Structure to design on (170 residues):
């Protein structure tokens, strides 16, 4: 059993970190999420299943864990913004400087993550996996749907994402 876990760890770790980082936007946080997913795997019966089922289970647990982290961070950021806004308004010293571009990129990434977080879980997972380069069969296994349903979930997810994204425009 230890050899099986070590094999899964070595073959899946980097892939899962990249997947979690796409959600969280932070490699260190992504590594924490993957560590939690692998810790859960070490005692879970799915470890005895075939490789593709273990991989699908790990992707699902990793994506869910990453979104849980993202939601927690967004709530903490919102609390911080509310308390900072009560104290004093935010001012940018030089509106044409590189800091403004960095702020805009950061806000854009936060907007994408917020739009993704607003989607139903299956649509969100399908979009993330597809845009991470996974095939329909791999997505279907991770989400727990028939391969033919992946296209429908992707189409609906893209439409819903676009709608949520536009609603979040500043």
């Amino acid at each position: 059993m230890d050899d099986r876990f070590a094999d899964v760890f070595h073959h899946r770790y980097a892939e899962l970190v990249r997947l979690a980082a796409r959600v969280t936007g932070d490699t260190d946080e992504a590594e924490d999420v993957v560590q939690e997913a692998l810790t859960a795997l070490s005692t879970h019966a799915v470890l005895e299943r075939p490789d593709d089922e273990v991989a699908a289970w790990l992707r699902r647990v990793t994506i869910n864990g990453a979104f849980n982290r993202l939601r927690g961070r967004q709530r903490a950021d919102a609390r911080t913004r509310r308390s900072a806004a009560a104290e004093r308004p935010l001012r940018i010293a030089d509106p044409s400087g590189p800091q403004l571009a960095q702020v805009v990129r950061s806000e854009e990434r936060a907007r994408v993550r917020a739009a993704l977080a607003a989607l139903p879980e299956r649509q969100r997972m399908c979009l993330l996996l597809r845009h991470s380069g996974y095939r329909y069969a791999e997505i279907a296994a991770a989400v727990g749907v028939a391969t033919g349903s992946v296209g429908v979930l992707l189409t609906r997810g893209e439409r819903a994402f676009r709608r949520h994204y536009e609603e979040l425009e500043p």
The chain has a mean pLDDT of 85.
